[in-house]
Amino acid sequence: MNNWTQRWDDRYSNEEFAYGEEPNNYLKDQIEKLNAGSILFPAEGEGRNAIYAAKLGWKVAAFDISAEGKNKALKLAEANNVTINYQVGELESLNYQTEQFDAIALIYAHFPAEIKSSIHKTLDKYLSKNGIIIFEAFSKKHLEYLALNDKVGGPKDIESLFSIEEIQSDFSNYEIIELVEKEIELNEGLFHNGKGSVIRFVGRKK
Asked: What's the pTM value of the predicted model, to 2 decimals?
């Protein structure tokens, strides 16, 4: 996994924020419908979404494999006068508790293809009953958009991208509030710009 870690450390080591400082639009829309509680942000990078949640009064935990991402996130938290609990490491090495969180937000949390489903299933254990998953990430169809414009970003291998069927399978014990594949226009920092195809999912754990 070292090359993977290095890749993200390199991306987050610049002064400028790779995906901007503003929260993801879908996260913003969905989290505002919920009562603040405790929330986990996996693969949270430079912290833009976690900090937004903290400003709304959520108790925020986040993790990523990139120490550079954490450094940027903590600076952003300080600038916004909020605190977040941000850990660096792989999920299995972190000490989250069963049913610890009221919500989990997976925003472009593209884990390596061979572990992405097992990570989803592990995260499920940390979500309380009736807890909410908010998910947005690139769909398998996104490769067509990448071929036209690589500034839109996202993984270039189909196995790392998502399908509706995969989400249904990974989160089979959820009431589906929304699950769609959709073309959207992204304008997030340096690396998410242009039209792309995403899966959006909001589910409530039964």
From this structure: 0.96
Predicted local confidence at residue 199, as pLDDT: 98
Count of other CB atoms within 10 angstroms of residue 57: 11
Q: How far apart are CA 91 and CA 49, in angstroms?
A: 19
- Distances in Å between the Cα of 24 and the Cα atoms of 64, 67, 94 are 17, 21, 25
Q: Contact 68/12 with Cβ under 8 angstroms?
A: yes
